[in-house]
Specification:
Elements: H1 13-31, E1 43-48, H2 54-65, E2 69-73, H3 75-78, H4 86-96, E3 99-103, H5 107-116, E4 121-123, H6 131-143, E5 150-154, H7 159-171, E6 174-178, H8 187-196, E7 201-203, H9 206-210, E8 215-218, H10 230-238, E9 253-256, H11 268-271, H12 278-296
Helix pairs in contact: 1-12, 2-12, 4-5, 6-7, 6-12, 7-8
Bound molecules: phosphoric acid mono(formamide)ester (CP) and norvaline.
């Protein structure tokens, strides 16, 4: 059966552990300069409706390291949903490539592609979810504070946060989410986390969320496609959601999916401090996604 990765909870808790273990092994192999051509002669299609640095770089480099190949298709190449229906794109991709990673605006489009594809479809970010980011986040937490720790999310409750909520639920991480009331985690995502076993505590008070936290995670206040939303910025400013030295008076580590808007959701001095593990987190996209691709393509 074709396995897709539309969000983190497409994996069971055991499968998530398998992917993270594979990621850690593959990371070791890269560091020791050992070849690991698990996906020799296989091809990944990469379809982007939005810009990207980390996602494109990590998937393309990952496929090279696994002995395969990746093809980049930007917004002007494929004209998703414009040149032909999504269903036709899904069937076309299925005839050429072994797996497709897609970065789209509308999560429903991703689900439609997955429903018609005979190959694994991997979510490289939609407006609702960013599960590949969560794999890297969890690998980073496992390497630093461990899963038996308290984590606080401070900021917008959209894509990165929502997948992180599901990932923490699967990993059994004690999570508190602080968002403005109007930019919280979708109730349906909270229900899914609850169904897995551990829904986060939810608050609109960043200071309360970070008290006693071992790790604090934030993301931009204005996501790709929302650049003109002035009300959104105002809501985060009014609620004191900036991750700054005053907020972090204990000494948690700090995560950010990047790109960061310095001195908006996070101050320059926190981002550049020793407590920030953001470059380790960004590098872990590579290792985590290689583990995922090897899992989805039955190469572990
Ligand atoms: N974190 C992340 O997905 O980065 P890019 O948008 O650069 O791919
Ligand atoms: N929330 C951000 C994440 C970027 C990786 C966005 O959607 O733009």
């Amino acid at each position: 059966m074709t396995r897709h990765f539309t969000d983190v909870d497409d994996l069971s808790a055991d499968e998530l552990e398998t992917v993270l273990d594979a990621a850690a092994d593959l990371k070791g192999q890269v560091k020791r300069d050992e070849p690991h051509p698990l996906l020799g002669r296989q091809t990944l299609g990469m379809v982007f409706e939005k810009p990207s640095s980390r996602t494109r770089l990590s998937f393309e480099t990952g496929m090279t390291q696994l002995g395969g190949h990746a093809i980049f298709l930007g917004p002007d190449d494929i004209g998703l949903g414009e040149r032909e229906p999504l269903t036709d794109t899904a069937r076309t991709l299925s005839g050429y490539v072994d797996c497709a990673m897609v970065r789209l605006f509308d999560h429903e489009d991703l689900k439609e592609l997955a429903a018609c594809a005979d190959i694994p479809i991997v979510n490289g970010l939609t407006d609702d979810a960013h599960p590949c980011q969560t794999l890297a986040d969890l690998l980073t937490l496992r390497e630093t504070v461990g899963f038996d720790s308290r984590v606080a999310w401070v900021g917008d409750g959209n894509n990165v946060a929502q997948s992180f909520v599901l990932g923490c639920a699967l990993a059994g991480i004690d999570l508190t989410v602080a968002t403005p009331d109007e930019y919280g985690i979708d109730e349906r995502v909270l229900d899914r986390a609850d169904g897995i076993g551990t829904a986060p505590d939810v608050t609109n008070d960043p200071a309360a969320a970070v008290t006693g936290a071992d790790a604090v995670y934030t993301d931009v206040w204005v996501s790709m496609g929302e650049e003109h939303s002035k009300e959104k910025l105002a809501a985060f400013e009014a609620g004191d959601f900036q991750v700054n030295a005053d907020l972090l008076d204990d000494s948690p580590i700090v995560l950010h999916c990047l790109p960061a808007h310095r001195d908006e959701e996070i101050t320059e001095n926190v981002l550049e401090s020793d407590r920030a593990v953001v470059w380790q987190q960004a590098e872990n996209r590579l290792h985590a996604q290689k583990g995922l691709l090897a899992f989805l393509l039955d190469a572990l």
